[in-house]
From TrEMBL:
<dbReference type="InterPro" id="IPR001328">
    <property type="entry name" value="Pept_tRNA_hydro"/>
</dbReference>
<dbReference type="GO" id="GO:0072344">
    <property type="term" value="P:rescue of stalled ribosome"/>
</dbReference>
<dbReference type="GO" id="GO:0000049">
    <property type="term" value="F:tRNA binding"/>
</dbReference>
<feature type="binding site">
    <location>
        <position position="64"/>
    </location>
    <ligand>
        <name>tRNA</name>
    </ligand>
</feature>
<keyword id="KW-0963">Cytoplasm</keyword>
<dbReference type="InterPro" id="IPR036416">
    <property type="entry name" value="Pept_tRNA_hydro_sf"/>
</dbReference>
<comment type="function">
    <text>Hydrolyzes ribosome-free peptidyl-tRNAs (with 1 or more amino acids incorporated), which drop off the ribosome during protein synthesis, or as a result of ribosome stalling.</text>
</comment>
<keyword id="KW-0820">tRNA-binding</keyword>
<keyword id="KW-0378">Hydrolase</keyword>
<dbReference type="GO" id="GO:0005737">
    <property type="term" value="C:cytoplasm"/>
</dbReference>
<dbReference type="GO" id="GO:0006515">
    <property type="term" value="P:protein quality control for misfolded or incompletely synthesized proteins"/>
</dbReference>
<feature type="binding site">
    <location>
        <position position="14"/>
    </location>
    <ligand>
        <name>tRNA</name>
    </ligand>
</feature>
<feature type="site" description="Stabilizes the basic form of H active site to accept a proton">
    <location>
        <position position="91"/>
    </location>
</feature>
<keyword id="KW-0694">RNA-binding</keyword>
<comment type="similarity">
    <text>Belongs to the PTH family.</text>
</comment>
<feature type="site" description="Discriminates between blocked and unblocked aminoacyl-tRNA">
    <location>
        <position position="9"/>
    </location>
</feature>
<feature type="active site" description="Proton acceptor">
    <location>
        <position position="19"/>
    </location>
</feature>
Length: 185
């Protein structure tokens, strides 16, 4: 079994903001596959599906970004999913807008959602799909991550979302992080 979790903040106020890149990626994947998050439990919206013969849980934690680990650890513990079978989709300010990078494990890089997941899972050994949102040039970090993409930036993000669908499918198909890094980084 695999868990794919997109990170973001719940509620319409945050819908299209940069910090919700994980939710936007998950929504794009669900749209492409004709799926929806039809369950509310574990402090998240989720669904369990059979995709290419693999049991997969698709999750959007509803705990706010800084407490994402609560929801993810509840799901992982309930379904007894090893952290190596998790793929966390997150925004990354240290990369240009729309750039994608896969990581197999590691520190949080200052991302509060990832800090929360590391704390609640008790390990750094889970996969991440990082999508760049760029560091702000003339704005505070908080005001930057809580604003939407402009039209030019959104085109780059749409390309990243399309590529993310392929990455998620490859992860579900059982390709390890080294394969994914070689193919997509």
């Amino acid at each position: 079994m695999k868990i794919i979790a997109g990170l973001g903040n719940p509620g319409p106020k945050y819908d299209k903001t940069k910090h919700n890149t994980g939710f936007m990626t998950m929504d794009h994947y669900l749209n492409e596959k004709g799926l929806s998050l039809d369950k509310d439990k574990f402090e998240g919206h989720w669904t369990k599906q059979k995709i290419n013969g693999e049991d997969v849980i698709l999750l959007e934690p509803q705990t706010f970004m800084n407490e994402s680990g609560r929801s993810i650890s509840q799901v992982a513990n309930f379904f007894k999913v090893d952290p190596a079978d998790l793929l966390i989709i997150q925004d990354d300010m240290d990369m240009p807008i729309g750039k994608i990078r896969i990581r197999a494990n590691g520190k949080s890089g200052g991302h509060n959602g990832i800090k929360s997941i590391i704390r609640d899972l008790g390990t750094e050994k889970f996969n991440r799909l990082k999508i760049g949102i760029r560091h702000p040039k003339n704005a505070t970090v908080v005001s930057w991550v809580l604003t939407p993409f402009n039209d030019e930036q959104q085109k780059l993000m749409d390309d990243a979302f399309d590529t993310s669908v392929k990455i998620i499918d490859d992860f579900i198909a059982g390709h390890d992080s080294q394969y994914l890094m070689n193919k997509y980084n």
